[in-house]
Amino acid sequence: MTNPVLVEVTRGHLVESSHRGAIAVVDAHGNCGAAIGDVEAAVFPRSSVKLIQALPLVESGAAEAFGYGEEELALACASHSGERRHVAIVRRMLEKCGHSPADLECGAQAPSNLAAANALVRTGEASSPLYNTCSGKHAGFICLACHLGVDPTGYVASNHPVQRAVAVVVAATTGISLGADVCATDGCSIPTYAVPLDRLALAFAGLITGEGQSPQRAAAARRLFDACMGDPSLVAGTGRFCTEVMEALSGRVFVKTGAEGIYCGAIPEAGLGIAVKCDDGATRAAEAMMAATLAALLPMAAAERDLFSQRLTRSIASRVGVKVGEIRPVAGLVDAIREGRSLTREDIIRSADSSIVPTARSPSGG
Amino acid sequence: MTNPVLVEVTRGHLVESSHRGAIAVVDAHGNCGAAIGDVEAAVFPRSSVKLIQALPLVESGAAEAFGYGEEELALACASHSGERRHVAIVRRMLEKCGHSPADLECGAQAPSNLAAANALVRTGEASSPLYNTCSGKHAGFICLACHLGVDPTGYVASNHPVQRAVAVVVAATTGISLGADVCATDGCSIPTYAVPLDRLALAFAGLITGEGQSPQRAAAARRLFDACMGDPSLVAGTGRFCTEVMEALSGRVFVKTGAEGIYCGAIPEAGLGIAVKCDDGATRAAEAMMAATLAALLPMAAAERDLFSQRLTRSIASRVGVKVGEIRPVAGLVDAIREGRSLTREDIIRSADSSIVPTARSPSGG
Fold it and tell me: Considering only CB atoms, which chain A residues are within 8 Å of B14?
């Protein structure tokens, strides 16, 4: 099945680029809220399931034993931008379990936040694993190893007790058995398991409602969701989609990005889980797909809608700041998601009206 | 027409993301060398036609009048990385026609080369239009205005004599009449006109062979191609595709990138022009498409093939440097281009063998 075009990138009044993808919305019973494209195709969730990967940290009692509060839990679920506060909290997570940044196995990375990266350049400080966008998750893994009484060394390996515990929870929440055939290595060296898109949505629906979960798991998920939605600046960073959308829709939505155009989310008041994947891996398009999904499913007050509209349709500006195009969901996408139907031929024709058409040709090209 | 998947991004042994696109290869008479996907669809060429946009600078006599040599001509065709040498040459281009960086209208941009960007951060120097990847082209525009005896101010506007001269050459070489209906604004504020992909390839075939061109235009094109292929480090920068591929295949190929996944090229020995566009705008995929095209059309010695193979299939590494996946043309693409045929069902099936398949599902998701 070829996924439909869901996001257009325009320049002037023509479409310059387009992004295909799939969107799955389900409730905790697996009932389909919306299914755009091939929602049964397996995708690598990458960092979009960090909240699920952090469940063992809470469920095991490790977080409580080592005095992790809201901030530490948010960082365990974060793909942070390496800003000062992010790094300070990760350092504290390591200190609380008697470890140091040298024990992180995620690899060094410069902060994705430009000001933070430039601050390091100015002081001449080398980038370190602390600034890796996954360092909070990794600090949580080390903490879990300590609590389990095992050596944290090698905690990124799929056969280490930490990753085995994580895989058990991913399998249980998605209802998928995870074998070596669907396992690959994430950029931060831990395993990532390919899971059908609708099963990712199902996992978040189950966790946000607690339905079908043990009381222990439901409580752990609630603590993690609250930590993330309570201070969205910790989950991503200044100016980023996850942070801005969770701030704009305070407490009404959880969203989490992952590399290669994946996004997961949950809407507590509707009891829905969401998973989107852009076929080509573009973050700009995955964000627009998630924005369209939220616009369809979440009644918004005028103020929320204003804050949100810039994320639904993003301007592309020239280097002197003049708007020259935009990134936007295709016409009909928001309606199709709201109505729980596929994109119709009419939607696609409506959208194609704004596409580039071949121009008049002269007989000779020279 | 839906373009075929031409590039796969793998993780482990599964396909994580995929890129669709089109590839046009034609000779100077418009004979099709290869046509993959919809090659008649119009695309914005963006910076991939900088060499064409620089033709008026040479044809008018401006370059000669102001003493522009090989280096200045290469920079006029460049999307440079803002490295020290790039910026020094652009500064000289402006000085030679009595102007300064303050006259550039492309807007400020930090160097894309990380070391160059960090050097600015360390010294506290603000980024300026000099570091804009298009500053060489813009310096050439200012030089052309001087030679035409018109005020350079506003040289980025579509009705300024400089942009009118540029549009005339783009129209003549592509054989397309360029109206306001296909005009949009590039990131550096100049007009960009949507042109069918095969007509972009035709333009480069005509210019690389000189066939169908006036002696003046053929000579101007030859000077610009020679300047670019003679020192590819000036056309892009350290580690970049345009520079590395032109260096590896010294003098045997011209390639030039543009934003949103467009690439143009020419093979002098075969008399062919090339244009590729990745539907979703990804540079990583446009590079792989161009690499596949060159691999198909250019007989290579063992040493050239070795240098080139890393550009044909690029490794994706984790943050600790371990290979976790790759970016590669789909199976059959190189053969299809070489044989001048479309991708067959067999090619697509061969490719799909390595795609992600839905995993086993348990009855319940909780």
Answer: 42, 44, 182, 184, 194
Tokens matching residue B268: 């002098």
User: Strands, E, within B268-311: which ranges?
Assistant: 272-278
Classify B353 as helix, strand or coil. Answer: coil
Torsional sign, CA B28, B31, B37, B42:
positive
Nearest-Cα distance to chain B for A130, in Å, is 12
Inspect the interface and report whether the beta carbons of B319 and A260 lie closer than 8 Å: no
Q: Is A137 left (phi over 0), alpha (psi -120 to 50) or beta?
A: alpha
- The pLDDT tens digits along chain B (366 residues) read 799 999 999 999 999 999 999 999 999 999 999 999 999 999 999 999 999 999 999 999 999 999 999 999 999 999 999 999 999 999 999 999 999 999 999 999 999 999 999 999 999 988 899 999 999 999 999 999 999 999 999 999 999 999 999 999 999 999 999 999 999 999 999 999 999 999 999 999 999 999 999 999 999 999 999 999 999 999 999 999 999 999 999 999 999 999 999 999 999 999 999 999 999 999 999 999 999 999 999 999 998 998 889 899 999 999 999 999 999 999 999 999 999 877 765 665 555 444 443 344 443 333
Q: Which amino acid is at A294?
A: L
CB contact under 8 A, A194 and B14: yes
Q: Tokens 């990375």 map to which residue? A: A109
User: Does any CB of chain A come closer than 8 Å to the CB of residue B30?
Assistant: yes
Chain A residue with Cα closest to B204: A366
DSSP A208-229: HH-TTS-HHHHHHHHHHHHHHH
In whole angstroms, give the CA distance from residue B121 to residue B115: 10
B285 touches chain A (CB under 8 A): yes
Q: In 3D, which of A209, A250, A57 has the Cα closest to residue A142? A: A57
B115 touches chain A (CB under 8 A): no
Q: Which ipTM value was assigned to this complex?
A: 0.94
One-letter amino acid of B97 = C
Nearest to B18 among A279, A356, A357 (CB): A279
Contact residues on chain B for A196, CB-CB shorter than 8 A: 358-359, 361
Q: Whole-prediction pTM value?
A: 0.94
Q: Which residues pair with B184 in a beta bridge?
A: B192
Chain A residues with CB-CB distance to B129 below 8 A: 319
